[in-house]
Amino acid sequence: MDLSEIPTENLVKEVQRRLECLNKPEKRLILIGPPGSGKGTQSPMIKNDNCLCHLATGDMLRAAVAAKTPLGMEAKKAMEAGALVSDEIVVGLIEENVKRPECRTGFVLDGFPRTVVQAQKLEEMLNKKGESIDKVLNFAVPDQLLVDRIVGRWVHPASGRSYHEKFAPPKVAGVDDVTGEPLVKRKDDNAETLKSRLSAFHAQTAPVIAYYKDKVVTIKADKPQAEVAAQVRKALD
Q1: Annotated active-site positions, please?
Q2: Distance CA 233, CA 57 (A)
Q3: pTM listed for this prediction
């Protein structure tokens, strides 16, 4: 990248941010929450405020497969065979990713662990490095509100912009505000599918929350975004 193309003000801000990051304490965090709980909205703020890297298992898998790393090739083989990618591969990917410079002061882990066995394997890997998970943020939202949030969602496929017929409607019903193109409803955005996913989520992750009980902070994620962000900041102070 040619730095001469970047405004000086932006460069100065980035240098200041990096200097501030040098004094930030290390943090290793897990975000737990059902679909639609707002983890994706809050994770960039958590990452930036605490100078952490964001580790999403899906992104790591796709990157490893694209880069044809040994773990990526193993994962690709499993996926092509229609099998689940093993816990060992995912923990291996996390171990590789936490060596990146941007993960020097820690990470936000999203989408893993989903089971107690995965949590144990993650802790074993971290313990070998003399590290451990510091906090687990549990984004709690009543199931019925999640159903309302998801079932009313409409998406602009090309950009990923999302709307909600009740909470954030488009200016003109059924069309994207920016392009005027039609909005679509995702196949899985229906009450029956979501209730099934929520049932599986609760069955799998309730034991994970119990496993980390001394490190769990419950975030009331049914509040407005600013209130949720304030709860998160308080939990991480």
Answers
A1: 39, 114, 153, 186, 197
A2: 24
A3: 0.81
